[in-house]
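step: validate -> pass
step: tokenize input -> pass
step: predict -> running
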Amino acid sequence: MQSVKSIDSLLWVKIKLGDLNAFNELYDRYIDQLYEFGIQHTSDKDYVMDCIHDLFLDIYKYRKKLSNADNVKFYLFKSLKRKINRKYKSKIKLYDFDDKQDEIKSSYASAEESIIQTEKSTEINTKLSCALQSLSSKQRKGISLKFDEKKSYEEIAAILGISIESVRTLIYRAVKKLRSEIEMK
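step: predict -> pass
step: emit ->
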């Protein structure tokens, strides 16, 4: 009987060669354990699932560049923890920035700053509007349900008639496309 490490190593090699079945098998083997591990670091269940999906999307996307992993399970858990922490830290930085920006506005508000802020907002809204047009109608609907109507992944899945995993992937890809579209403009 093969050990868990050797099965994982074999799956890893197959993933590096582009085997989608091996990728799916590795995902199925560890999704529950990764989820349990993730919610030990944050109570935001949707956030944990987003990080797990980001991790697996990165693995598949960069599969040709992956190094050999002696312990695939350790690699997955360490990578997930890093993703959770990195995203959490970036959320804190954005929050801190917003707080400081509010303080600056209240202390040094002027007509010129107000005009500049309005122009920036208009520019951002224009870029976002153009970028939204590049999305498929299903992606636009998913983004609208998630961010405008504040629906959960489960609710969006029911509305769109697709699985929760498909909703997560749909939202992830839409947001990624929006970011790249906005950065290009």
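step: describe -> The helical segments are 4-16, 20-39, 45-61, 72-108, 111-133, 137-148, 153-160, 164-184.
step: cleanup -> pass
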